[in-house]
Amino acid sequence: MVKKLFDVYKRWRHSRGFGVHSPYAFRFVTDVVRPGSYGFYAYDKLETLLKREEIHDRHLISTAEFLIRLAVFVKAKRLIINQGNRAAELASKSLGLPYRVVGVKESPEGRREEKGEIKKSRSGEKAERIKLRDGDLISLYGKPGNRGFSGPIDLEWLQMALQQNIPILVLNPDAQTRSLLEKPFSYGLLFTSPGSVLLIPRPEMAYTSYEISLKIG
What pLDDT digit, counting tens, does each position of 68-111 carry? Predict the structure, then answer.
């Protein structure tokens, strides 16, 4: 019980920048986790999308807002997401960024995929892996639920993403995914909370991890 309370207190401190000594990590806290009243142009586009699609789910909206801030922070050029990951779709559209869906064929325009294009193997083999590139940001849901899930995460593919220094955010991660991402990395920043894991590989930085409460929901 005492340890649990201490963990909550530690996440509270880190979420406000206390004890966060890395300048880059501190900027992540002030720009992404707790940006205050700072506005983003993409918020206006997001609000338009929410009204058009009559979306009122507060958790979905705050997750989309968080992803907008995260994408801006890591200078993302494309999002890699689960099928049905509405928050990531909204963030991508609000930012004007293309996105790819795990396990789905790429459209000729390379911008988005339709649900009817899911690539399934008759022999039960894994769907074709998305080729990653600089500027990608991976945003996935790790367990089945009504907020976006397309089957178990391909851990080998995720390992390759780490080797390519691709930022990875997994919400509601399963035990295997959390274990992979929380394994001490050679460099970069790891942010963990009970419901999420975010790893930002940065070759120029020594590996540092923080327990933090992400401002989602």
Answer: 999 999 999 999 998 888 999 999 999 999 999 886 544 444 44
Cα–Cα distance measured from residue 85 to residue 91, given in angstroms and rounded to the nearest whole number: 10
- DSSP codes, 9-64: HHHHHHHTTTT---HHHHHHIIIII--TT---HHHHHHHHHHHHTT---HHHHHHH
Q: Which one, of 134, 128, 144, lies nearest residue 76 by Cα?
A: 134
CA dist., res. 57 & res. 169, Å (int): 21
> Whose CA is closest to 140, among 186, 190, 103, 115?
103
Bridge partners of residue 81, in order along the sequence: 101, 139
Q: pTM surpassing 0.85?
A: no
Ramachandran category for residue 74: left, alpha or beta (phi over 0 → left; psi -120 to 50 → alpha): alpha
pLDDT in tens, 19-49: 455 787 788 888 888 786 666 789 999 999 9
Closest residue by Cα to residue 99 from 121, 77, 119: 77
Q: Which residues contact 126 (CB under 8 A, 6 or more apart)?
A: 154
What distance in Å separates the CA atoms of residue 78 and residue 93, rounded to the nearest whole number? Answer: 11
Q: Give the pairing type, strands 189-193 and 136-141.
A: unpaired
State the virtual CA torsion across 51, 54, 58, 64 in degrees, nearest 10: -60
Q: How many CB atoms sit inside 10 A of residue 41's CB?
A: 12
Residue at 163: amino acid letter: Q
